[in-house]
Amino acid sequence: MLGQTVVVMGASGGIGEAVCLSFAKMGANVVACGRRNPILETLLEKLNSQKIETSSPPTSLDSNVSTLAPKLKSKYAAEIPCAILHKQHHNIHICDVSNYNSITTLLSYLQKHSSSVSHLINAFGITSDSILLKQPLADIQRVLDTNLLGTINSCKAFSRIFLKQRYGNIVNISSVVGQHGNRGQAVYAASKAGVIGFSKALAKEMGPANVRVNVICPGFIQTDMTKNIFNPETQQSSLEYNDILNSIILKRFGEPQDVADGVLFLSKSKYITGSVLNIDGGLFI
Ligand SMILES: NC(=O)c1ccc[n+]([C@@H]2O[C@H](COP(=O)([O-])OP(=O)(O)OC[C@H]3O[C@@H](n4cnc5c(N)ncnc54)[C@H](OP(=O)(O)O)[C@@H]3O)[C@@H](O)[C@H]2O)c1
């Protein structure tokens, strides 16, 4: 990952942030995208103070680094912020994935200011839970525009540069709900099932150009998206909370880092494409 650039869409979310920090720890340059600037600003501070976690020496030290005192260099793994060792450049961008122009604006900026992008992680998403009969048409549109069309927009925009450079890694975040359905989430399920089918087809299209496309299906992960379930004031008495917990084989809810670990695994695995990785604590085995 050292010196490679990753674009994370949905970086202001729980899973997106964990993905950004995990890539930064591996020495990557992170382009963190979302719609809420204050949250992205805070994330940028975290990224810039991130320490690298690797046991092998960096391979692309620039001239500044090569002049560092040997004692300082020998301690790099534990002590020195990534930015000093590798001149990491992290960026934040406002980007609305449901708007194709918003993504192409980002792309134009990246092409002017960054080295090539190697990884695209689509970690955005919204829910709008309701039984279908009562769900307003506007909400249906919003969920599809964000979760499904947003994934298509993002992959389409980046496919141009990935195909041209004949290298690229895409990880799309779907959901176990896209595989199994869930009452009150028919539209969300449709959007997430769409992401799986779309990603498999794209893997077939882009594989010959060495562009890999994989999907992760998280189960119940503790983020803003699931905060109603995890509200400490209600969870002890919540039937839903206990029902869900009992149905998870590992008997715990997931952390954003559990998903980020899977994203990194897929990003580093050069011979995996078109796969769907469930990270759900065994919810559906
Ligand atoms: N948490 C779970 O239990 C769980 C389970 C299964 C699947 N997932 C999936 O995992 C992914 C991440 O979810 P999360 O749990 O991290 O939720 P989260 O904390 O609510 O984050 C969602 C992110 O999506 C971004 N987003 C929403 N609309 C967007 C748009 N139009 N353009 C760009 N970004 C947009 C939000 O950023 P802004 O508001 O700043 O734009 C936010 O950063 C989603 O695809 C979700 O469906 C989550």
UniProtKB/TrEMBL annotation:
One of its GO terms (biological process) is fatty acid biosynthetic process. The keyword Nuclease does not apply. Keywords: NADP, Oxidoreductase. GO terms for molecular function: oxidoreductase activity, acting on the CH-OH group of donors, NAD or NADP as acceptor; quinone binding. The keyword NADP applies. InterPro entries: NAD(P)-bd_dom_sf, Sc_DH/Rdtase_CS, SDR_fam. Gene3D superfamilies: NAD(P)-binding Rossmann-like Domain. Belongs to the short-chain dehydrogenases/reductases (SDR) family. This is 3-oxoacyl-[acyl-carrier-protein] reductase. It holds the Pfam family adh_short. SUPFAM superfamilies: NAD(P)-binding Rossmann-fold domains. PANTHER family: 3-OXOACYL-[ACYL-CARRIER-PROTEIN] REDUCTASE, SHORT-CHAIN DEHYDROGENASES/REDUCTASES FAMILY MEMBER.
